[in-house]
Each structure stands twice: as structure tokens, then as C-alpha cells.
Amino acid sequence: MRKLTLTILCFVFLLPICVFSADTPVADKFKKSFPKNNFESIAPSTIKGVYEVYTGSQIYYYMPKDDVILYGSLITKDGKNLTRESNSKKIAQKMAKIPLNSALKTGNGKTTVVEFMDPHCYHCRQAYKFFSQRQDVTLYTFFFPLSKESADKIRHVLCSKDVLKTYDDVMDGKLDNNAPLNICTDKKVEETIKTHMRFVSEIGIRGTPLFYIKGQVVDGFELPAIEKLLNN
């Protein structure tokens, strides 16, 4: 077994998030000890006696022997974050199932890329420039605004007559510095935004950008990882 470092940030009693549970002795003990902590799954981790608890949006750990919760990351001696990898796999399973009809579609390439992004996020804009230059990608964009400014720009894009042109202007920074925005009250626009935010909540996305490419999740604009997936 590889040597692992358990980064323990704190012992916590987490708030309830999801409502699924496994019917196992460990899960039963956990539910009895922490009745307010709902979860989707509990499974053995790579450390004997330590179990991975998945809430639907994050992972923490449970030691049934000592009946305590550990909140942090499992990191190998060579720096691999096993907690992040496990969470990415769970996100990928959920992203594979979401319908794409409400997403903003750009490109017409053979490889489908799904992203969650914030139009005011620097790395999201860098990713947009990268994918705009790829002829082999069809990009489906879901919006996850992390500020009011971003939310206003998303509404401006969706309210415009030429959505793709307006989106390109936003991502190119042409509407920064308090440029006037067209924020309509169209019900379809509001429904699209609500749908995107519902997916954010259901999938457990906590930041942008996030990409789903060929069955795998890339958290952040990690160019080497993205290029490797696209080119394989």
C-alpha cells in the first residue's frame, strides 16, 4: 500500500446535504452517531479503518473505531490528491447524465466538451480562447455565476438577439468596466439560469471552470490534461 498523508483540517459535525445512505454496519453506526449528517455513500478509503463519506458535493472521512469525522484530503507521498480524484469521478458520473438542451452550444466538432463557467472568471476566459481555436470540439456551456456582475453578464448574453456574438464580446472583455448591459425579464432566460444552477447544485460543483471531456472531469483550466484528453 502506498504511504499516504492525511491532511486533517478539523473535526466537524457537518450540515445535512443529501438524503441517500448505504445499508451497511459502518453506515448504520455513522447514522446513529451523526444523525444530522446525510450522505449519498460511504465506502472504504485507501487507508484501513478510514471510510470515505460522500455528501453529494464533497468528501470527508469517518473512522468508526474512534467514531470521529475527519475533514481534509488524502494525499500520497508524490503529491497526488486522492480525495480530489475520487470526487472528480463522482462528478463525472453525474455530468454524463445531464441533458444538454439548455446549454449554450458553440462549435461543431466531433468531440463533445461540457463546461461550467463564470464569464468574469479569468481562467474561464482563457479556456474560451483555447476552445475557440479548436475545430474538433463542440462546446456546451452551462453558466455558474459567482458574483452579481457575472450574473448580469449572463443575462445580457441570453437576452441578446445574437447570443453567440454577445457571448464572444463578454468573454473577450469588451463589456468590462461597467459597460451598459441589456438585462431583460424574459421567462425563458430566467428558466435557463435556474436550470443551470440546479445542475450546479445536483452535481456538487463548487468552482469554475469545470470540464467534462470523454467521460472525465477536469477541475480548472488544466491545459495539459485537457489537451491530452482531446488528442487521445
From TrEMBL:
CDD domains: DsbA_DsbC_DsbG. Residues 23-83 form the Disulphide bond isomerase DsbC/G N-terminal domain. InterPro entries: DiS-bond_Isoase_DsbC/G, DiS-bond_isomerase_DsbC/G_N, DiS-bond_isomerase_DsbC/G_N_sf, Thiol:disulfide_interchange, Thioredoxin-like_fold, Thioredoxin-like_sf. Keywords: Disulfide bond, Periplasm, Redox-active center, Signal. GO terms for cellular component: periplasmic space. This is Thiol:disulfide interchange protein dsbc. It is found in: Periplasm.
